[in-house]
Amino acid sequence: MGKQNLTLLTDFYELTMMQGYFNNNMNEIVVFDVFYRDNPCNSGYAICAGLEQVIEYVKNLRFKDDDIEYLRSLKIFDENFLNYLKNFHFTGDIYAIPEGTVVFPMEPLLKVVAPIMEAQLIETAILNIINHQSLIATKASRVVYAASGAPVMEFGLRRAQGPDAGTLGARAAVIGGCIGTSNVLSAKLYDLPALGTHAHSWIMSFDDELTAFRKYAELYPLNTTLLVDTYDTLRTGVPNAIKVFKELRDSGKMPEKYGIRLDSGDLAYLSKMARKMLDEAGFTDATITASSDLDEYVIESLIAQDAKIDSWGVGTKLITSKDCPSFGGVYKLSAIKKGDKFIPRMKLSENQWKITNPGNKKIYRIYEKDSGKVKADLITLHDEHFTSDKPLLLFDPIATWKKTYLKPNTYTLRELLVPIFINGKCVYTSPSVMEIRDYCAKEQDTLWDECRRLTNPHNVYVDLSSKLYQIKTDLLNEYYASL
Amino acid sequence: MGKQNLTLLTDFYELTMMQGYFNNNMNEIVVFDVFYRDNPCNSGYAICAGLEQVIEYVKNLRFKDDDIEYLRSLKIFDENFLNYLKNFHFTGDIYAIPEGTVVFPMEPLLKVVAPIMEAQLIETAILNIINHQSLIATKASRVVYAASGAPVMEFGLRRAQGPDAGTLGARAAVIGGCIGTSNVLSAKLYDLPALGTHAHSWIMSFDDELTAFRKYAELYPLNTTLLVDTYDTLRTGVPNAIKVFKELRDSGKMPEKYGIRLDSGDLAYLSKMARKMLDEAGFTDATITASSDLDEYVIESLIAQDAKIDSWGVGTKLITSKDCPSFGGVYKLSAIKKGDKFIPRMKLSENQWKITNPGNKKIYRIYEKDSGKVKADLITLHDEHFTSDKPLLLFDPIATWKKTYLKPNTYTLRELLVPIFINGKCVYTSPSVMEIRDYCAKEQDTLWDECRRLTNPHNVYVDLSSKLYQIKTDLLNEYYASL
To answer: What are the transmembrane regions (chains A, B) (predicted)?
Structure first.
């Protein structure tokens, strides 16, 4: 993706609106928030991801001559505006929650503070990137949680929605906790472990399964994982694998890592039978890897039935987040700067949940001091300041009678949004993906186990400061009074 | 996508297997088939798409120095093999069904006849590309069918699974019948109509809705579509739009195309009320566009309730194929060439439906002569020859007692697979996307309406020639006798 110019990766209306602002001499500083309304996949949280690609995209924003030429050919943009585009680059500020952080609905994952023309152009690409990677990172974290410590490998490239979905999806899956990917390009680009052994076609290219296994073991003496379901798992596959393992043992060439992979059939039954056969032949340290249409629910259910599976390869349902293939991130105008002040703006809706939070905002994460677990998030105005030596009253912004009172020094605070671009200059260095993965694992440890449950999890509260709540209420009242 | 080197866009095991073939001096010509087992989204057919990108990918297959360096760093590939990769290019043949064709389960959409090392490497990328675009083209064709002639616009970039999913997805959506896309990059790359007007942020950037509408109408006097749901659709949005339309009419500046867009709320109710308000004000030719979480089922249901919607913008649920976000295309070895003969190979499974069709094959589509509608598809060996002046007996390959007898000259035949690469040279020129779209519309006309029904459609039969059926049966018997 890095090498492509993605400047035109935007919705057409961003450009028609930009021209509108241009022709009306409107280029106020505005604030746009990226946030989402519901956690994907019935999850109690999401993992935000994609920031590194957003940074690359913003850094490389330039309309090339052929882009201008193309826009001119549409006969809707005038020359003054096209001239402006020729010299376009991003001059604003961007704040974001670091990749791999656990996040919750309604809070800004990313905030753009920039001249409106610039802020408008970048809406679509930012949403595209953040929505995609946050979705897959969240899904992966659920699959990894279900696997209860057994390694999960990302195997989905062939079913991903295009090359980027495979490559950036694998990146996000590793952030969410996968140990590596089968996708070689992604492994190269993001320095991830490249994983995999062989396919059915390897077996079928030989006259018989046993020869195929022997040849494979000869070639890869360090890690010999044999795929046993090309013909018949228990009648030929596992017996042939055991035959080869015995030959290796007899010749003193036992591989350091070895085992079998199951790719079809009832994985609980087959893994138990295979485990028994391997153990009886003395191969108690042979691993059993399973793949075949897995997701967090299937893995949880197989483990509940005591399936003997040491390692999981997860493809389609992870790389597409099959049961919930979109992350509903939106990008909403929340303030316009007039003079030194940010004037709050709000989008209304008949659905209370869909009314946006106005103003230039920041987020505090509140941790219980003793346990280090997340208590709640608090969205405040950007110039409010909270410290943990004071009492803190939290209240639900919709059901306002629901209140929690935190005593001084029983909690700690952390600001979630960090500066990424200031005056158009990138001030942030992305960690490596494997570093983000480690950070993300620690982040998930700050959640109560009840929030990580795969179905009907407990929800973490995201509250508004009293000041912010008041501004929102006033704007609502003002609007309805004006009707 | 075109500018990226996708040579490493492959599963790691393709490379370990390649090295296995290399070290064993195995480089026989083999046949691999791309096919799928079930139509996506409960559809009675699929639309195949992605061939142009497969061609680009195969043409550009080259391991660059840094790719070789990367593979060397993994310490699993030896120098002889890395040297071989340095000079690697595709030398084989590829046959495929042209993009935009209606296709059915179990038939090869694409066939690779090439030395096994080459055929193995390209598995993953071919599946990734074909699976993605065929999925979205199929989904789009369903949405367009539901819209019953009203135009459908692709609006999903912000929720697509990464940049390619948005850009190639828009390409596929147009093949499936969308009139254009909001995605400017895709519109530029594939010469598609770029569509869209303005967002809520346009309205919110002004002090009031009326001013925002006026300014927009001034700027875009040829096509003035106003988004009316930022504050309150019927109380402010539609009345303000009508006010602006009246001002335009009074000043003799009525736009050629004008209307409103609804983006939330109950679209049946709101569109009927808005239509009434517009008509009463004399704006009977104002169009009503709807967007907001649409798919084929919602559109069908809104039309059944007589919603007054002239044009549809479809986003998330089309660009992700939300209810079925993967297309299950697989790539299976079906034959190995020994001397002049193709020796059939078959993957077994306990599930009869999952047993592959062996041999080097081709496909005839059989049309009813009078109606031009598709009667069935017939998979045969590549060297079988059928003509329509002979009687033809079709039988179901699983329920073999189900037979259909076609009289001579009551049907016509068409071979579906056409040569794309011969001896590594591309012999095919892709039509433009808009040409493929026209072809695809004609293709869908060859289906009986019963096959296009959105739920529980009639299925088209895909049968095997007697010769092919016999080979499959013999291989099965032979294998089970050997156990």
So the answer is: none
CATH number of the domain enclosing B238: 3.20.20.70
Chain B residues within 8 A of A12 when measuring between CB atoms: 182-184, 187, 194-196
Residues of B in Cβ contact (< 8 Å) with A88: none
Q: Which residue of B has its CA nearest to A358?
A: B204
Distance set, CA A92 to CA A336, A354, B202 (Å): 14, 27, 19
Give the ipTM of the model, two decimals please. Answer: 0.96
How big is the CA angle at B73 (ends B69 and B75), to the nearest 5 degrees?
130
Please indicate whether, in this complex, the C-beta atoms of A327 and B158 are within 8 angstroms of each other: no
Q: In angstroms, rounded to a whole number, what is the distance separating the alpha carbons of residues B227 and A347? A: 13
E strand or H helix at A154, and its extent? strand A152-154
Query: Measured between alpha carbons, how far apart are the two ends of chain B, in Å?
Result: 48
Which helix (H) or strand (E) covers residue B51, if one does?
A: helix B51-59
Residue where a domain stops, chosen among A247, A274, A292: A292
Task: Say yes or no for a CB contact (<8 Å) between B13 and A321.
Answer: no
Indicate the number of domains in chain B: 2
**Chain B residues with CB inside 8 Å of A333's CB?**
200-201, 204-205
Per-residue pLDDT of chain B (483 residues; tens, 9 = 90+): 335 689 999 999 999 999 999 999 999 999 999 999 999 999 999 999 999 999 999 999 999 999 999 999 999 999 999 999 999 999 999 999 999 999 999 999 999 999 999 999 999 999 999 999 999 999 999 999 999 999 999 999 999 999 999 999 999 999 999 999 999 999 999 999 999 989 999 999 998 999 999 999 999 999 999 999 998 999 999 999 999 999 999 999 999 999 999 999 999 999 999 999 999 999 999 999 999 899 999 999 999 999 999 999 999 999 999 999 999 999 999 999 999 999 999 887 766 777 899 999 999 999 999 999 999 999 999 999 999 999 999 988 888 888 899 999 999 999 999 999 999 999 999 999 999 999 999 999 999 999 999 999 999 999 999 999 999 999 989 888 877
Residue of B nearest to A231 (CA): B348
Domain contains A396: yes
Find the closest chain A residue to B332 by CA distance: A201
**Cβ within 8 Å, pair A195-B12:** yes
**Is B262 within 8 Å of B270 (Cβ atoms)?**
yes
